[in-house]
Amino acid sequence: MSLNITYKQESGQDIGTLKSLQDRLSRKNIGDNVNDHYEANKDFFISVTDMYIVECFLEFFGMGDKYSMPTKHVPPTFNTNDEMKEWYFSTVEIIVKQHVFLQTITTGAKQQMLEVDGQCFRLVLENGKTITLMKKTISKSKKGDKISNYGNQILQLGLLFKDLIDMIHMPERVRGIRLLKLAMMYFKVYNNLSKYALEILRLLVHQLCTLSEKGSNEEFYSMFVNTGGKFDTHIPADRRMEYLVKEVKQHVKHMYSNKTEENISNRIYLNSRNFRKF
Predict the structure, then answer these.
(1) Per the database record, which ranges form the DUF6589 domain (predicted)?
(2) So where are the chain's domains?
(3) What rounded mean pLDDT belongs to the chain?
């Protein structure tokens, strides 16, 4: 979804777009078929997102490059670590409001009293009541900056994508629910009949409405498998099953005609590192 929104073949001449950066860096297999070249597309999109994040901070602090000194929003002198944390979070909040989640109003409506010869026009009804006629005016905002909007879109989608990947490696239910709510809105806006938005909605109903606290935790954490025994080595359970199926197919492929159930079991058990561990 992120690449379908931000990657356009005809935008190669526009500086800063994914297509122009792909041509400049001579990256291949980008944007054609994400499913066939997922890792290449993922690494490229994350790299571009990191580039926009760095540029966003350089602009906010008035820096020419990452080695220069800040000329705007210069950090004060901190006496304690708490003061440093407070300044850090408040500054990041300002950056996010200015460059990521912009609140723009496209149209606005105002009502003014209708005046005739400098006096408010009032209408007397047959029942004796008096009403004041109002004049409604609709104002439209100026045309937005397409370059700024594109950068804002890259930051929104890129940060959400990076946060989802980080959450998968280190699952945490509260954080996951918050990210899934935001992702569901993007999927719904991108495609009104998106199956991903419906699946996220189904999961959120389970997590927040129908299941108990124990059941919701069991359902959420059962979607991940820790393959390395560390706190940040989780992967999705469906991807783990894909790896196992691929590994079994590789073993079966080299057995040629000797494909009996017993031989397949022995082959997998003796040659698979994961099965030996199990």
Answers:
(1) 5-277
(2) 1-103, 107-140, 224-277
(3) 82
